[in-house]
Amino acid sequence: MPLTFAPATDNALPLTLLTPEGLEEGLAALHAPQAAWARATGFAAKAGEVVLLPGEDGAPAGALVGLGDAKARARGRFLAAKARKALPEGPWRIVGAPDGADLAEIALGWLLEGYRFTRYKEGAPPKARLVAPEGIDAALIEATAEAEALVRDLINTPAADMGPAELEAAARELAERHGAEIKVTTGDDLLAANFPMIHAVGRAATAARAPRLIEMTWGNEGPALTLVGKGVCFDTGGLDLKPAASMGLMKKDMGGAANVLGLASLIMARGTACRLRVLIPAVENAVSAESFRPQDVLTARNGLTVEINNTDAEGRLVLADALALAAEDPAALTLSMATLTGAARVAVGPDIAPFFATEDSLAAALSTAGAQVADPVWRLPFHEPYEALIEPAIADLDNAPKGGMAGSITAALFLRRFAPAPYVHFDIYGWNQTAAPGRPVGGAGQGFRAIFAALPELLG
C-alpha cells in the first residue's frame, strides 16, 4: 500500500482524538449510547488506545483514539499511529482533536505506520487509511513519507544487494524521476580524477563492487546546497577487522548516503528553490591483498596527508575527498551525513541525531526545526582544543586518534579540515533498535526532516 492519504470522501468514518485530560469533555460530545459504550470498555485515552463506537446496525460508526497524558506525549512520537493497526479497513477522517494537537505530525505518523520492508518477505500493512486532515500540507506529508520509505529501504537492504553499484542505481533512479543529472567516477578512474582516499578505502573490494563517487545535480535557481553522504555499503573494518558483534549491522554503514538521498528526494519533489548537488562516495571496506594498511600515509584530494592508525576509521577518509571536491566550488551551505562514530551513539543514544555546525545561526535553525517536525537533533561542539588530537607526528592528520576520547568531535574536526564554510555535519545512527509507533525496527531516517524544515533559514 502506498504511503499516501485516502481520497476525500463523505463516507469516511469519524475519528476523535482524545487525551486523558479532555476525556470527559470528549465523551460528553458523543451520542449518549456511544459515550456509555466507551465508558463501559474502560477507555482512558492512553497513547494509541482505541475504542470502536457502534452504530445502530452494529457496524462501527466511528472510533476514539487516545493520545496519552502529558508525560507520554513528551516522551513519544507519532503516538496516534499505534491505533492504525487496530482500526478496521476503510477511510477514516479526524473530526476532533485537542487544542494544540499537531495534526501534521499525527498524519505523518499514520502514513509511516504503513511502511513495510517487503523485498524478501511479504508484510501486509494496516488497511485503515486516513483522509488528510484539513489545514495540513498533505503533499508535503506524503513526500516526506516517501522520502523516509526510501531511506529505510536502502538501509534495510543487505549488503549483498546494496553494494556501491546498487547504491549508484538507486541514485540514478531518483535522478531520472526528478530530472536531475548524474555523473559517476568508478574504480581506477578515481585516481585519474584525484579521489585517492575513496580509491584507497574501496580498492580491496571485487571489481563488481568497485569504489565510486556519485555526483547528482538538480535545479538552476536559488542558493547552492551541497549534500555529502557516507556510502560505505559494508564495513568489515578492513585489516583492523571488526569482531562479529560489531560487524552485524554494518549493512547500515551507508545510512548517511541513504539519508542524503531521502533529503534530496524531498527537496526535488517539493520543487525547493535551490541548486542542489549531492556527493556520495560509495565503497565497500573489504579485506584483500589490496587493502590499505595501518600506518599507511594517504594524500587526500586537497593535498593534506593522513596517517592511518585504524583502517576501521574509513568513513572520514572517503568523506574527506568528497568534501574537498565541494570546497572547490563552495555552496551557500555544505552539509554531510554519516553513520560515522560509535561515540555519537554513546553520547546521545540512537534516537537523537547529533550534529556540528560552524555557525550558531545554523545550529539554532536546526534545533528549532527538529522540535517542530518531531525529528530530534542535538548540537555537539567543534571543540578547538581537540584539534591537536588529530595531528600525528608524521602527517598532517590522524584518522584515528589514540585514547578513544571525544571520538565524534575529533571525527567532525577531521572533516572540517576539508569542508568549505559554512558547514554542518550530522553523525547519525540510522537504525531503530526498538519498535515504536510509525518507527519499526530497522533502517531509519534521522535529521533529514529537520534539515528540510530549516532550509529557508539555513540557505538564508
From TrEMBL:
<dbReference type="InterPro" id="IPR000819">
    <property type="entry name" value="Peptidase_M17_C"/>
</dbReference>
<dbReference type="InterPro" id="IPR011356">
    <property type="entry name" value="Leucine_aapep/pepB"/>
</dbReference>
<dbReference type="GO" id="GO:0070006">
    <property type="term" value="F:metalloaminopeptidase activity"/>
</dbReference>
<dbReference type="Pfam" id="PF00883">
    <property type="entry name" value="Peptidase_M17"/>
</dbReference>
<protein>
    <submittedName>
        <fullName>Leucyl aminopeptidase family protein</fullName>
    </submittedName>
</protein>
<dbReference type="Pfam" id="PF21337">
    <property type="entry name" value="Peptidase_M17_N_1"/>
</dbReference>
<dbReference type="GO" id="GO:0006508">
    <property type="term" value="P:proteolysis"/>
</dbReference>
<feature type="domain" description="Cytosol aminopeptidase">
    <location>
        <begin position="310"/>
        <end position="317"/>
    </location>
</feature>
<dbReference type="GO" id="GO:0030145">
    <property type="term" value="F:manganese ion binding"/>
</dbReference>
<dbReference type="InterPro" id="IPR048816">
    <property type="entry name" value="Peptidase_M17_N_1"/>
</dbReference>
<dbReference type="InterPro" id="IPR043472">
    <property type="entry name" value="Macro_dom-like"/>
</dbReference>
<comment type="similarity">
    <text>Belongs to the peptidase M17 family.</text>
</comment>
<keyword id="KW-0464">Manganese</keyword>
<dbReference type="GO" id="GO:0005737">
    <property type="term" value="C:cytoplasm"/>
</dbReference>
<keyword id="KW-0378">Hydrolase</keyword>
<keyword id="KW-0645">Protease</keyword>
<keyword id="KW-0031">Aminopeptidase</keyword>
